[in-house]
Backbone:
């Protein structure tokens, strides 16, 4: 049996991930001062832009067109009710017809994306292939400079390009600001390049046996 040296145990990593997935799907009773939720919709033909729905508890609900790599908002439409939203999305899907592959497992079913805090001030987007684990990218977590506390990160959604050449990771960060909790989703573009994965070193567990 082999274990990744970067973590205390493989079992701990998997357990942390499974607990995280349960937590991200469980409603919370904590009232956030700022709460932002993002829901991916679809890509345009060349995957350079995508549509996302944003729910902001202060600014309302909007349908946005964003640049894939930078995340910059190109256009934003306020929607007043579900019918208005559906009509807007129906029109946009004519120019954004490409569905992303939503889920942790990639479109070729070779790699699985997971996430865990790196123990410092970042959040690791991890890759699993077979029995191997590695870090694809580390996303910086928000910092409250007054208190020195770091946000709690949670990987909520993984959207793969149909070809698998990049992923969009929706990462939620919750951080205490003054006496309130800011609870905000962000989307991160991550190129999926095999040669850039930092695979954990494998070592024998020392249990022996034949």
Residues:
């Amino acid at each position: 049996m082999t274990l990744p040296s970067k973590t205390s145990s493989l079992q701990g990593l998997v357990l942390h991930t499974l607990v995280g997935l349960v937590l991200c799907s469980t409603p919370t009773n904590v009232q956030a001062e700022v709460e932002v939720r993002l829901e991916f919709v679809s890509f345009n033909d060349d995957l350079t832009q995508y549509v996302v729905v944003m729910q902001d508890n202060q600014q309302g609900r909007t349908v946005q067109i964003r640049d894939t790599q930078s995340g910059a908002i190109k256009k934003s439409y306020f929607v007043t009710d579900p019918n208005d939203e559906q009509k807007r999305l129906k029109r946009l899907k004519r120019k954004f017809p490409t569905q992303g592959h939503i889920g942790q497992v990639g479109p070729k079913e070779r790699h699985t994306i997971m996430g865990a805090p790196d123990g410092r001030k970042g959040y690791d987007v991890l890759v699993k292939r077979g029995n191997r684990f590695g870090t694809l990218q580390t996303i910086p977590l928000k910092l409250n400079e007054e208190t020195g506390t770091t946000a709690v990160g949670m990987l909520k959604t993984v959207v793969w390009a149909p070809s698998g050449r990049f992923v969009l990771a929706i990462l939620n960060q919750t951080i205490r600001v003054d006496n309130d909790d800011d609870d905000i989703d962000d989307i991160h573009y991550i190129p999926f390049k095999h040669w850039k994965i930092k695979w954990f070193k494998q070592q024998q567990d020392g249990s022996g046996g034949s």
Remarks:
- The radius of gyration is 19 Å.
- The first helix runs from residue 10 to 24.
